[in-house]
Write a structure and sequence with these properties.
7-stranded parallel β-sheet, alpha/beta, 4 domains, Rossmann fold, Enzyme I, Chain A, domain 2
């Protein structure tokens, strides 16, 4: 967009002397407007200096971009007026200007006014790892103190909400409440409100019940309108007249609910709601579609009432409130523990001179505002800052929270009577998609609906708080905007999601794309439509859906890139059309987990270059794992697994054969002591073996002894240094003085590997400044970082900006734009687990739990929990509406939405019914919004409407996955024949050989965060694991041993050294097969999918392909709380708890089918496991190392239980196998070796008999007995 501003943009730039809210629609140029306002403020007559403005934005990158844009504008102006002293002054001041994030602004306040709150001026900001470590220590100390005190309420809470022998559930509850309380400006007030909810006797003043009352009233009013229409239908000549009595009866009940004066009366009327049966009398004149419509709509209302009775009104109001009041002591104890935890954390952090990011905001507020007895008073510091700053400009205001609002209000002139207000807030509430960061879009909406319009004020000559609408979109073609408007006119309403999508919110076209008739482009009449594509996958399997969608998208992209009929897009830099490139296309998904990797590989298989934003898992990098293992051995040489890893690494220099010899001969010399370090010491001292053993082995043993002695000497030196050196100096000494850094640099991607080591050195240096010290605590700190998936990554990242299709999450795409947007996963289910947790928690309404009666040993959902859960559900669906809005508004020229659907006929019928209603009512009802489960529930009813009912053009296609596969095979066959002829004609094979030679010497890591995948460029590159270290294995794993079954006749008693060496050779191409110490659960044979590129190019240390999906399932089963998983909802809530407690990543959670886990829990073996867990006879993720036939075998057993003094082994498998007996046989064939070794290990380790070996297949949904 050139410097031609609209009248609304000019108003947004120049209006002053009041608080201003700028509602800036997607693509409206809000950043340019904000920059221009700042420049105007500091350059026009009577302007201010730039350091007297506060400009707060959401991220550091956005702040840096804003500052750069302002600086560039000033530089351009100075070029035209070189002697302008004010411009020179502003350029000099810009580096000190408060154009920053809210955290950085609060830190600036804190550093300048720390004395106001008696904070040590030497404070530092602790990282998340140190805080996590401190939280764990403080939590353990606090709970131990409470146990010592034997507080009755505390012990009652443990009995009611604890799980077995662990306090993990109590810790989770405390931390959850603690975190949410701190998002409020005054946590103590929030705590009091939480308790008041349970102790207050006046239901009319209980805000939880008031919120529920209003929600039910909104739904009832919508159902009333639906029933009025149904009454009309029944009364038609061709209507189902016999249904009228039942419909009228329902209608009267709805009216009675609406007329309820208060919550008590409403609850009574809902509980008494009864439904009469529909008449079965024949209606020969009635249309079948009208009968079906009435039935379906009535069933929806019955389901709604049933849901209320099940989750909210489970008894009469007096009994419900009695449970609420009885639950008050438990809630009070939760609050007490959370407050005590907060106080102890505060004390510990002050003692250590540290703060965390949430402290910074709270301390800043304490400096600016004091509050006593509900009355706020602003401090002298706040007054000084309010006088100093001439304007407070807030970007992305829709993502602010209440705490930030209080801080920025305190430094504004909003509260000063003698000067004009000066808060300038810019944002788009329709793009508020950061609920997980505790964003509060209600702040924006409250001001939006309370401020008057600027045009209205101009007409009346009034100066007061105002809003300015920026509605024009300068990004997208008209049809993209029209179809987006069509959807959100219907689905986004104020009653449900807080914002009304009306003429003031609609997107208006601000840029007319030039016509182009000679080049195929998206302005052609037959290309203008927004495409909605549903793929009938015939089975409800998300993986099948992803693959089908990916194949369709690949075909669509190939058509865009066709040589015969290529598409052209408009390039604003060229002001002309150019041929479309791969980088013009983006594929958006709600989450990358489980989607990005599949899509990338399917595109690559079809010769479409693709890239996805992927994050390396730092602690799984080989060069880092070796260093951590060495540090562990320096701290404690008696840890055998790290020791084995070090011996086989650069630092030990042992081969696998030498390690095996050490185990054999070390055992002879050390006797019963099986630790490597002891066996090395014994081998060095004991000459008997050397003298008595066969002569031909003497030389080998002598060399082995010398090698052991050399290594132990080095280890001794390092251990002595560890007591004298800092962690950083010790690590530096190890890395550089041993040559390890240079050695790593010679490997493939050596520069990147060295960079990874630099990050660890930086972390070691930072650790020295923490409140912890010493090697033991550093290793404990590293262990916490790994446990909670707090990754350390090189800030430069990896990736590239080549000509590739990008796969991004919708959140990542916010603020970006692309000529072609393909939105995948249209039918993926929306995550609603927050509303189904055992403890539901909301910033506005507080805490909801079940009531546990210890005397009666009963657990019942409380009214408060049900009410809060419904509010959380509403907020979640509202946010998903906004996420969809963000996705649709990324497209400049073409928008395609794709979804795989099972049971398509049933869903199409439901969507068509809502579509017909939209034609009558125009918008989604409150009740319809409550039933939204997928993005397709918002898109499809609109797409199915008649063309005349929409402004834009939807092109709807329904295709089968079988058709996609056929077309895909045809395209691939054609492409292969073209490639063959091309090779023959052009000698391309020689070119490939040359490319391979040159690429072997190439540093494949780029500087961008995204990874660029191009199959052609990866040919000939050595895999990441093919380095001197990667070919070495610590031990023979059970996974490796069972591989041999595929190639040889299995004999469990016939393993010799040659066999194991063969297993090494077979396994050397897959570094992920080891499950050392239970950190990895990779399953062989899980999928026939073969990676098309080396991992060191893809940058994906953990991508959720089949093996990683297996890891995710294993992690769920490892963390599952068997004491509290009786129902499907319990399992769903427990899995969500794993995400909230950071036991699992969002990537992993999104790849879990909850139904699979519940099927296991409710299966015969699941019930046996649960019984064993409750009785304390269950073990999970049991690592083992045992000797078998002079070889060291290691593995991790998923689960075993003890029944009647005998062992039952359970091994989980996620392999995709055929249904029925064939699948069972295949699994037995694949894994019988593995389970035999598990049985041998457990027999040796426990002395107990193994009576059953079971495989549980998540694919088949049942157990398979492999024998005893």
């Amino acid at each position: 967009m050139a410097k031609s501003w609209t009248s609304q943009q000019l108003d947004a730039m120049n209006t002053k002397d009041r608080d201003i809210l700028v509602s800036a629609a997607a693509g409206s140029g809000k950043t340019a407007v904000l920059v221009e306002r700042i420049v105007n403020k500091i350059t026009k007559e009577n302007g201010t200096d730039i350091d007297r403005l506060v400009v707060v934005t959401f991220t550091k990158a956005a702040a840096a971009e804003m500052k750069a844009r302002v600086r560039n504008r000033l530089d351009d102006m100075l070029d035209e007026d070189e002697k302008n002293s004010n411009l020179i002054k502003q350029i000099a001041l810009i580096n000190n200007a408060q154009i920053t994030t809210i955290d950085s602004f609060c830190l600036w306040i804190l550093k300048n006014h720390f004395s106001e709150i008696n904070l040590d001026p030497g404070f530092r900001v602790a990282d998340k790892g140190e805080i996590t470590l401190l939280e764990n220590d403080v939590m353990q100390d606090m709970l131990e103190d409470y146990y010592k005190e034997s507080d009755e309420q505390f012990l009652a809470l443990i009995d009611a909400y604890g799980t077995g022998r662990s306090d993990a559930n109590i810790e989770e509850i405390i931390k959850k409440i603690y975190v949410l309380a701190r998002s409020n400006p005054w946590p103590d007030e929030w705590y009091e409100q939480v308790i008041d909810t349970y102790t207050g006797m006046d239901n009319s003043n209980n805000k939880v019940l008031v919120n529920l009352y209003e929600s039910i009233q909104c739904s009832a009013r919508d159902y009333k309108r639906k029933y009025e229409y149904m009454v009309e239908l029944c009364g038609r000549v061709d209507g189902p007249i016999s249904y009228l009595d039942a419909i009228n009866s329902d209608y009267m009940n709805i009216c009675r609910i609406i007329d309820a004066a208060d919550f008590d009366e409403l609850s009574e009327r809902v509980i008494k709601t009864e439904f009469t049966r529909l008449s079965t009398k024949r209606m020969p004149d009635a249309r079948d579609d009208l009968k079906e419509y009435v039935k379906v709509q009535r069933d929806k209302y019955k389901k709604y009432i049933a849901g209320l009775l099940k989750t909210v009104f489970t008894a009469d109001i007096d009994s419900l409130m009695e449970d609420v009041h009885s639950n008050a002591p438990a809630i009070s104890m939760m609050v007490k523990l959370s407050k005590d935890f907060a106080d102890r954390m505060e004390e510990e952090k002050r003692d250590r001179g540290i703060v965390e990011f949430s402290d910074i905001e709270h301390y800043a507020l304490d400096i600016l505002v004091t509050k006593q007895d509900g009355s706020k008073e602003y401090t002298n510091v706040a007054d000084e800052l309010a006088e100093y700053f001439n304007e407070i400009l807030i970007d992305e205001y829709q993502d602010s929270n209440q705490l930030q609002e209080e801080i920025l209000t305190a430094v504004s002139r909003h509260r000063l009577s003698d000067v004009p207000d000066n808060m300038y807030m810019v944002g788009d509430v329709k793009q508020s998609i950061y609920k997980f960061r505790l964003a509060c879009p209600e702040l924006f909406m409250n001001k939006y609906y309370s401020y008057s319009g600027y045009d209205e004020q101009k007409e009346k000559g009034v100066i007061s708080d105002c809003k300015i609408e920026l509605q024009k979109n300068f990004r997208s073609r008209k049809n993209v905007l029209d179809t987006t408007n069509d959807v959100f006119y219907r689905v986004m309403n104020r009653n449900y999601c807080g914002i009304e999508y009306d003429s003031n919110q609609q997107l208006n076209c601000g840029f007319e794309y030039p016509e182009c008739t000679d080049k195929r482009n998206f302005g052609w009449e037959d290309e203008k439509s927004t495409e909605t594509v549903l793929i009938d996958t015939s089975e409800d399997d998300e993986n099948s859906s992803i693959e089908a969608e990916a194949m369709y998208m690949a075909e669509r992209i190939k058509k865009f890139m066709s040589k015969d009929e290529p598409y052209y897009v408009f390039d604003t830099d060229l002001s002309d059309y150019r041929r479309i490139q791969y980088k013009d296309i983006v594929i958006l998904t709600r989450t990358l987990s489980g989607w990005a990797d599949t899509i990338v590989n399917i595109l690559l298989d079809r010769d479409i270059p693709a890239m996805a934003d992927t994050a390396q898992q730092y602690f799984k990098l080989r060069e880092i794992k070796v260093l951590i293992s060495l540090l562990t051995c320096i701290d404690n040489p008696l840890q055998d697994i790290p020791m084995a890893a070090v011996l086989l690494s650069y630092f030990g220099g042992f081969t696998e054969d030498e390690l095996a010899d050490l185990r054999v001969y070390g055992k002879k010399s050390a006797g019963a002591d099986r630790l490597f370090v002891k066996q090395m010491q014994s081998l060095i001292k004991n000459t008997t073996i050397k003298d008595t053993d066969k002569k031909e082995n003497a030389e080998k043993l002598s060399a082995l002894s010398d090698k052991c002695e050399a290594f132990l000497d080095k280890l001794k030196v390092w251990r002595e240094k560890s007591r004298l050196m800092t962690i950083y100096d010790l690590l530096w000494d190890i890395v550089y003085n041993t040559g390890y850094y240079d050695y790593v640099g010679t490997m493939p991607a050596g520069k990147k590997r060295q960079s990874n080591i630099d990050v660890l050195l930086d972390k070691a240096s930072s650790f020295e400044g923490t409140s912890y010290s010493g090697l033991f605590n550093f290793l404990r700190y590293i262990e916490r970082l790994q446990k909670y998936d707090i990754e350390l990554t090189d800030s430069s990242g990896t990736g590239g900006n080549g000509d590739s299709v990008r796969i991004m999450s919708i959140h990542k795409s916010k603020g970006l734009e692309f000529p072609v947007v393909i939105m995948a996963g249209l039918n993926k289910q929306i995550n609603k687990t927050d509303a189904r947790n055992k403890l539901v928690i909301d910033r506005e309404l507080g805490i909801g739990t079940d009531y546990v009666n210890l005397t009666r040993q009963t657990k019942t959902p409380t009214l408060i929990k049900g009410a809060i859960a419904r509010k959380i559900l509403r907020d979640s669906i509202s946010e998903e509406e906004r996420v969809l809005y963000v996705a649709m508004t990324r497209a400049r020229e073409k928008l395609i939405m794709v979804g795989g659907v099972a049971s398509i006929d049933k869903k199409m019928s439901a969507w068509q019914m809502i579509s017909d209603e939209l034609c009558v009512n125009g918008v989604y009802s409150y009740a319809d919004c409550e039933n939204i489960d997928r993005y397709s529930d918002m898109i499809m009813p609109v797409a199915l409407m008649k063309q005349e009912d929409n402004k834009g053009t939807f092109e709807f296609s329904l295709i089968s996955s079988a058709d996609i596969i056929k077309e895909d095979e045809a395209i691939n066959k054609e492409a292969q024949s073209e490639n063959v002829s091309a090779d023959e004609d052009t000698g391309i094979n020689k070119g490939k050989e040359s490319m391979n030679e040159s690429l072997n010497d190439t540093d494949v890591y780029n500087d961008d965060k995204a990874q660029t995948y191009d199959r052609q460029k990866t040919e000939g590159l050595p895999p990441y694991i093919k380095d001197p270290d990667a070919d070495r294995k610590v031990k023979v794993t059970v996974t490796e041993l069972k591989q041999m079954q595929a190639d040889t006749d299995y004999d469990s008693d016939a393993f010799m050294q040659d066999d194991i060496k063969a297993a090494y050779d077979e396994a050397e191409h897959d570094e992920d097969k080891s499950r050392a110490a239970g950190t990895e659960n990779v399953e062989e044979g899980a999928d026939s999918f073969i990676p098309t590129i080396p991992k060191f190019i893809s940058g994906s240390e953990e991508t959720l392909r089949a093996n990683e999906r297996g890891t995710a399932y294993h992690r769920v089963m490892e963390c599952l709380d068997y004491n509290n998983v009786e129902s499907f909802e319990d399992v769903q809530a427990d899995i969500h708890r794993m995400l909230e407690t950071e036991r699992m990543s969002e990537v992993q959670i999104n790849n879990i089918n909850v139904k699979d886990i519940y099927t296991f829990v409710s299966s015969p073996i699941g019930k046996r496991v649960r019984a064993a867990a409750i009785s304390g006879n269950m073990r999970r993720e049991q690592p083992f190392v045992f000797e078998y036939d002079r070889q060291l075998v290691q593995g991790v057993i998923d689960l075993f239980i003890i029944e009647d003094g005998k062992i039952v082994i359970v091994d989980y498998k996620t392999d995709r196998v055929r249904k029925g007996e064939a699948g069972e046989k295949e699994l037995i064939k694949r894994y019988s070796v593995q389970l035999d070794y598990y049985a041998k290990a457990l027999s040796q380790l426990t002395g107990l008999e193994v009576k059953e070996k079971l495989i549980y297949s998540f694919t088949l949904g049942r157990e398979i007995n492999v024998g005893s």
